[in-house]
Design brief:
Elements (H helix, E strand, L loop, with lengths): L6 E5 L3 H11 L3 E8 L2 E7 L7 E5 L8 H12 L6 E5 L2 H10 L4 E8 L2 E7 L5 E6 L3
Parallel strand pairs: 1-4, 5-8
Antiparallel strand pairs: 2-3, 3-4, 6-7, 7-8
Length: 135
């Protein structure tokens, strides 16, 4: 029997805005987009990693009350959530491509620790580190 993590999620302020960013700018694909009333289960996948889904979730019912949802939205907007990591073959080339698509970087590519990394945020404020593969 195979076990492992199938889906991990991040909080976003607007699922349509997040979906456009991750699909149109970063090249992810939609895996699941279903609704149950006001609740929307939305997951995406990196095209080279089909066994893992990244959920794009809006804080709120049925998981959070209004006060908790407001607090979570504020934390995300400040960039206070744990960073995500996107592995790329060539950080300088990926930076140029994404920058030209309108991705706003918080850090240009820097060579350090035996590789190259850059930083950007999604429209909700989630921080990403883009790290060049070693090898």
């Amino acid at each position: 029997m195979t076990q492992g993590i199938q889906t991990a999620g991040i909080y976003v302020r607007d699922q349509d805005e997040a979906l456009a960013f991750y699909v149109d700018k970063l090249g992810f694909k939609v895996h699941t987009d279903v609704r149950n009333g006001d609740y929307r289960w939305l997951t995406i996948q990196h095209p080279e990693q089909p066994s893992f889904q990244l959920g794009l979730y809006v804080p709120g019912p049925p998981v959070h009350d209004a006060v908790t949802a407001q607090a979570l939205n504020a934390l995300v907007a400040k960039g206070a959530m744990p960073p995500l990591v996107l592995e790329v073959k060539d950080c300088f080339a990926a930076y140029d491509k994404l920058h030209n698509k309108g991705v706003e970087f918080t850090q240009e590519p820097v060579e350090r620790y035996g590789t190259v990394d850059a930083g950007f945020r999604d429209p909700s404020g989630n921080g990403w580190k883009m790290i060049q593969s070693r090898g």
